[in-house]
Design goal:
CATH architecture of the largest domain: 2-Layer Sandwich
CATH class of the largest domain: Alpha Beta
Structural class: alpha/beta
Number of domains: 2
CATH superfamily of the largest domain: Dihydrodipicolinate Reductase, domain 2
Length: 329
């Protein structure tokens, strides 16, 4: 088993290595891959030093699985080259997500759709993953009609430069900015770039990707994505209307028995999901479960997950685990 991590020097790439180690993913050879400026650098992993190699060299070594987290342009250019040598590419960028020829996979929900013909597999957006993890069991039970989601996303979702901006501003240090405005003690209703319709690209992902993952193009979804000054972990306030009514006790039961979901919902003990307690966890945490009295068949949820773990690295590696378990690689 030969595994390549493409974008190994980046924030998500580093977390991918942590998750590979934590989950005991078995491999015989590991290739750490990055852009030309990082080629030749050394990364230590599992008490061994690895030299970073180029994309071209990685393709020549014909890995069985490549975990991509190197940006959309890199993925568009190189994923087909890896696929051409029969390597299964699991891509964390947005490059392939809405392409009808490629699966968009959250393993707990739709890994069963994968076949031996899938060589480029898309990893969903971080905010999408945690939302559909919470909503998929409820959609199966009650049928979702409409979703209104507001996200509160950490700076790690932007990358290392944004984390550094927050740290600099906390210390009163002038430095390079990832955002148009200060993020410390602030909230920016601006995740990714603005589109012609006034939504951001992040909001567009939240409105489009769940339909593909849940296999239901009839879903009505609207989103507002906000960047907040937390270092890690994304939070979401979700208002969801169903086609059929529900009992809150049954909603909790469905969520509690869902793989990868943890219910934290006891306000008498101040128990609810928070980014601080979701840090470095692989589960999606759900709380503040309550009926919306203003609208029939409508529920409010608060959903939190570590955006670098289940929102990126862990989900990708779970896909790889599924491929191995099903002898698709």
């Amino acid at each position: 088993m030969k595994i390549a991590v493409v974008g190994a020097t980046g924030l998500v790439g580093q977390v991918m290595l942590e998750v590979l180690n934590a989950r005991g993913f078995q491999f015989d050879e590991l290739f750490l891959v990055a852009s030309e400026r990082s080629v030749g650098k050394t990364i230590s992993f599992q008490s061994k030093d690895y030299t970073v190699i180029s994309l071209e060299e990685a393709v020549s070594r014909r890995p069985d699985i490549a975990l991509f987290s190197a940006g959309g342009d890199t993925s568009l250019a190189w994923a087909p080259k890896f696929a051409a040598v029969k390597c299964r590419v699991i891509d964390n960028s947005s490059a392939w997500r809405m392409n009808p020829d490629h699966k968009l996979v959250v393993p707990e929900i739709n890994a069963h759709e994968l076949t031996k013909d899938d060589f480029i597999i898309a990893n969903p957006n971080c905010s999408t993953i945690q939302m559909v993890m919470a909503l998929a069991p409820l959609h199966r039970a009650y049928g979702i009609d409409r979703i209104v989601v507001s996200t509160y996303q950490s700076v790690s979702g932007t990358g290392v430069k944004a984390v550094q901006q927050l740290e600099n501003e906390e210390k009163g240090i002038e430095g390079e900015r990832a955002y148009a405005h200060p993020i410390y003690r602030n909230a920016l209703p601006h995740c990714d770039v603005f589109l012609a319709d006034g939504f951001t690209k992040e909001e567009q992902k939240l409105m489009q990707e769940p339909k593909k993952i849940l296999g239901d193009q009839s879903l009505k979804i609207t989103a507002t994505a906000v960047r907040i000054p937390t270092a890690g972990g994304h939070s979401e306030a979700i208002n969801v209307s169903f086609k059929r009514d529900f009992e809150l006790s049954e909603v909790r039961r469905l969520l509690e028995k869902s793989a990868g979901v943890v219910v934290q919902d006891d306000v008498s003990q101040n128990l609810y999901p928070m980014p601080a307690t979701a840090h470095q966890k692989d589960e999606v945490f759900v709380g503040r479960i309550r009926r919306d009295p203003s609208q029939a068949n409508t529920l409010n949820l608060w959903v939190v997950a570590d955006n670098l773990r289940k929102g990126a690295a862990t989900n990708a590696i779970q896909i790889a685990e599924y491929l191995v378990a099903q002898s698709l690689v």
